[in-house]
Structure formats: C-alpha cells, structure tokens
C-alpha cells in the first residue's frame, strides 16, 4: 500500500518531537514535519493554506468555521496550552490594585482575535467583574511596531478597538502611561527591569492553580488542523494522525520524569513536575474531544460573547471526535 505524503507545520515542541525524529510514525502516512515559529505557521496557513496539516490558533480556527466553506477541520489535538493570568501586565503608576480597577481603562492587545486575549477577556469578565465592553482596547505590536489584525473583524459597536500608530508599540505605550494594561501571550519589553511595568496578578502561580481548581480548565491555545480538501479525500487520516499525536505525548512525559540526566535545563524540574501533577492531575495535557469538552465550549462561548464568532459551538462542531464513525480509536 502506498503511503500518503503529508506536510505538517508546527513549533518544535517536546510533545511533537517523536513525530519529527521518527520514534512515532502515523499509520499509512509519511509525515514531513516542518518546524516553524507559530506566527509564521499561522500566517502562511490562514492566508495561503500551504500545509496539509498544521498547528493553528484556536481563535483563528473558530473564525474560519463561520465562513460559507470552512477550509479546515480540526483534530482533538492541542499542542499549545497555557494559563494566561500571568501575562496580564499593568503600569504600576496607573492606580491599579486589582482586576476591578481595569473597568474604563485603556488596554493594549497584539490582536483582538488572539487566542490568549480571548481567554484573558473572558476570564476577566466571568471571574473578575470586568465586562468585555467596559474596557477600551488598542491593538498593535508588543515589542515591534506595525502589527495588524490577521483577520478582518466585524465587532459590535459597544466594543471599542483602535489600532495604535504604525511606529508605536504596546510596550512603550504601557511604560509611558499611554496604556493602563496589556493583555498578551508574551512579555513587554522592559519587564523585570522597568519599575513602571508589573503584573496584574503578582502571585499568578497560586491564582492560576485556584482557577484550575474551580473551573477544571487548562486553557487551550492551539489545535491541529487538516485542510478540508485533504481530509475529504482521505478521511482515515484523522484517526491515524490523532493516534500518532497521542503516542508522541508519552516520550515527552517520560523525558520530564527522567532524573538521572536532566533533558530540560531546569535544576528543580522534579519538584516542579510534582507540583504540576498535584495541581492538574496526571493527564493534564490529554488530547481528545470528551477530555477537553468543557475547555473548548468555554472558549467558544467567550469568542461569541466578544463579538468574534456568530454563536457558541458544541465541542463536536469544533473538533473531530468519537461521533465520527470513521474516527473511533
């Protein structure tokens, strides 16, 4: 039987590495793994559909589902997850002592539709009393000027989003007091050295553990998509790929637990891993539709509430899963 050649663009994550180095091989598929920075992968796939399979921002993918002919289907595979309380930054001279002080303030975002920012706005609205429309948003590059929204937005009039100038950055505006806060996945230039820059949640590890304990959510950032035209010609690849991605998690878990010779340059990795397992449980990075139903549906609700997507979707409408007879594992 001839094996199917597929290209796959993704960041060089530890949970993908076994697919790249050949320790895990998808059944019936020769997978050409192309390691790329996430920004490049997202741009090339969303704009040009260059790859058969790719990592994709969960927010961008949900936006494509509102198109008349959605170009992608998503596997229940989530290579990037992150708590985002830690990456809400404030100007320490703006008189902000807690989340509620952000109401009526000026908040910078790299892009309104960014997955991290959807989570941050949703969490602030649902858990901290900061409604999405109570803040004025300003979008642009965090450390480099010129960033623009990758996708055209059609937001409700009550949500205020203004692009910053072509030569401005969110980092400089935050330090200068032209912004009161920044929601982002990265870190503003000068953070850690400029006393004007701080975190909204200085005790973020405990805040994020408490959030997970209350909600059961470890936020999904990215999923894995397949070009719909490829999937429709070869529907069996969904099962094969998902099985392979799941198998590739095991060596990543094993490497974290390796104590004799540390594979990660963290001297107290064993203690950190034990704390993570105690807080999140042993399957904290599990793939699968049912395992992630609550996370997916919460994010979809946030996206709709924030004016990005037409309606909240059920998990079965977002990713392939057990409801697909040809996809049972």
UniProtKB/TrEMBL annotation:
So which domain of life are we looking at? Answer: Bacteria
Q: What is this protein called?
A: ABC transporter substrate-binding protein
